[in-house]
Amino acid sequence: MEFGLLKDIVLLLGLALFTLIIFRQFKIPSIIGFLVTGIIAGPHALGFVKNIQEVEQMAEIGVVLLLFTIGIEFSLKELLRIRHLVLWGGGLQVGLTIALVALISTMAGFTPSESIFFGFLVSLSSTAILMKLLMDAGEMDTPHGKAALGILVFQDLCVVPLMLFVPFLAGTGNGVVDVALVSVKALVVVVIAHFGSRFAVPWIFSQVVRTRSRELFILTIIFVGFGTAWLTAQAGLSLALGAFIAGLAISESEYSHQVMGDIIPFRDAFISLFFISVGMLLDPAFVLSNPFIILAVVAMIIVVKCLLVAGTILILKFPTRVALTSGLILAQVGEFAFVLSYSGIKYGLLTEATYQVFLSASIATMALTPLYLKLADPFAEKFSAILFRILPAFLLKGTRSTGVSHARFPMEGHVIIIGYGVNGKNVARVLTSNGIPYLAVEANHLTVRTERKKGIKIIFGDASRPEILQHAHIEKARILVVAISDATASRRIVSQARSMSSTVHIIVRTRYIAEMEPLYTLGANEVIPEEFETSIEIFSRVLRNYLDPHDQIELCIGEVRKDSYQMFRSMSRRNLHAVGISSYLAGSELLTCRVQQGSAADGSHVKDGLIRGQSGATILAIKRGDEVTPNPDSDWQLSPEDVVLLLGNPQQLSVASVLFDGRDASA
Q: What is the domain partition of the chain in residue ranges?
């Protein structure tokens, strides 16, 4: 049995692996590697793949999945917030680009119909390439990221109307009526998506999540995404637009972060086939025989699109830097232009020669997009200064912004709590009482829904997925607390968190001492074994029952913790993440104590040596109100409510803590 498509995909992916390994050595973006792979394997070069149509069908799945994830990252509310960019920005950009390109083409000797069609092709930019680059660079929420997305959404909405106009340009068909009909259908689809996002999609996912089946959850994601895309295509719109609308519907539910984490591996696999399929269409011999014509067309596309996009955004009163950055990063031809070009060939608006010129120039602008993104900031900075010198200031002073990110819980310097069971809730309660911001991550949808109604900052998802930790702002977090009972999941979470942030302090709760070594090896800073802490609680209650003094019990606890945790810390020091200054403080800990009214420390001076003399601990800093005094001088007098930072071993700190307790002043 002949598996032609499977053979082609294996050949393409194998060649892509080889090409990307070489390109990565020179730090060349992966997208260019995929395009080069397609050129090499295509029918015009080595001819490894003969049936391009089947590969293109697989590649279209990648575009669908990309638009699906973009819709999830975005939201219908966010789309409404930047509607001025979508409607006015996108409308002006598409209209002006078509007009200017048509004018230039007419002057070059092409017919008016051909010239307008060239404008159609150039007006579209690459959603697939640019959105992937912006997402990888973490710039989706930047002003230029929002501006680019708004214009790209309008361009994608225009694909079908432009295709319906092609027969009209060629002198056949009923273009105006067809476009009006599709516009009505698009409006109906958007309305259905709005109500689906509020009612249908949350209900479907809530029923699926109840089963606690990961396989069923993933199948539901694929069904909703591809099902909506297919229905939208049946209405006469594009598959990609339907996928984007499906993503918008899911973005409003609490399951959006988990959906994103599960679908991204599929997206990345299929989108690579899209870039390869684009490269396969190019004829290298034509490029070598017509280099100057292709370079001239590439230069024209870049200049025209950069100027018109930047001008459009300036007209909408956005800052100059945002306009120039957006203009440069949108200066490429889009993947939907290839779809449109097929209609042009069918109706005689493109000859074989003009098609190859368009294809070569388009691939060149696509390949340059990573460079655009890298040069965007210096380009905007340099040309902003030039524009301010030659144009009136009122034309360049932006007064509009794209609005804030739709991220539900933006925060920084916070604590991430993984697992919102008994331990997680106790941690959250203490953090709340002390005014420390936190965000909880929980895999039980019922808990998430219940706690959200109480105003708790909590998201649904599997914290071992990088997308979930990214939504929890792991790179900005101060502490990560893993408070779940699953040892395997805890190891995955610690490993993933440490790979994403080298600075976050990771504290893990685990059941058994035997589980500590792997967690330290993976990057945990502190591991709290319930097995050990339970034994401490048991013997402390035994001693209390025998009426042993409180300070004696605390000393016993301190001794046990000192001996045992010293052994535990040796595990941490054996691993790479526990190097630096901590190696010089082996056996030492930091402790903060609040001076209570009537305690031994109340009213004492640092020079009295009370803390140092009776406990051996050292005062490092004192916080009074909002002011922190490091290394206080000897005349400092302690007052109630002062917070003192102490350094010492566990036994010294245990003794020192008694000196700050008003109940034990007699001790």
A: 1-51, 65-392, 416-583, 588-664
Q: Tokens 């080298």, residue? A: 502
Contact 646, 589 (CB under 8 A): no
Task: Pick the closest to residue 78 from 459, 382, 403 (CA basis).
Answer: 403
Q: Could you write out the three-class secondary structure of 400-455?
A: CCCCCCCCCCCCCCCEEEECCCHHHHHHHHHHHHCCCCEEEEECCHHHHHHHHHCC
Q: How large is the C-alpha radius of gyration of the chain?
A: 31
Phi-psi map region of 479: left, alpha, beta (phi>0 left; psi -120 to 50 alpha): beta
Q: Please state, in angstroms and rounded to a whole number, the distance separating the CA atoms of residues 292 and 284.
A: 14
Would you say 175 and 165 are in contact if contact means Cβ atoms under 8 Å apart? yes
* 8 Å CB contact between 634 and 607: yes
Six token digits for residue 458: 């909590």
Question: What mean pLDDT is predicted for residues 575-598?
Answer: 66
Long-range contacts of 262-266 (CB under 8 A, 24+ apart): 262/214, 262/217, 262/218, 262/221, 262/465, 263/65, 263/68, 263/69, 263/72, 263/218, 263/221, 263/222, 263/225, 264/69, 264/467, 266/65, 266/222
| H or E element, residue 192 | helix 175-195
Q: Which long-range contacts (CB under 8 A, 24 or more apart) does 337-342 make?
A: 337/120, 337/121, 337/122, 337/124, 337/362, 338/278, 338/281, 338/362, 339/159, 339/163, 340/120, 340/121, 340/124, 340/159, 340/162, 340/163, 340/166, 341/121
Cα–Cα distances in angstroms (integers) from residue 225 to residues 73, 76, 201, 220, 251, in the given order: 14, 16, 11, 8, 12
Which own/partner pairs from 523-531 qualify as long-range (CB within 8 Å, at least 24 positions apart)? 523/494, 523/495, 523/497, 523/498, 523/499, 523/575, 523/577, 524/482, 524/494, 524/572, 525/572, 525/577, 525/578, 526/572, 527/568, 529/568
> What mean pLDDT is reported for the chain?
79
Condensed to tens digits (0 to 9), the pLDDT of residues 37-74 reads: 888 887 878 877 766 666 666 667 777 777 777 677 66
pLDDT of residue 81 exceeding 80: no
For residue 29, the SS3 value is: coil
What are the tens digits of pLDDT across the range 139-195? 776 778 888 888 888 887 777 677 767 877 877 655 566 667 766 776 777 677 667
CATH annotation of 416-583: 3.40.50.720
Q: What tokens appear for 314 in the block?
A: 């300036």
% of residues, the chain, pLDDT over 70? 80
Give the pTM.
Answer: 0.57
**pLDDT, mean of residues 236-264:** 73
Given CATH 1.20.1530.20, say whether it is the number of domain 65-392.
yes
The fold of 588-664 is Alpha-Beta Plaits (3.30.70)
Residue 615: pLDDT over 70: yes
Nearest CA to 94 out of 177, 158, 148, 145 is that of 158
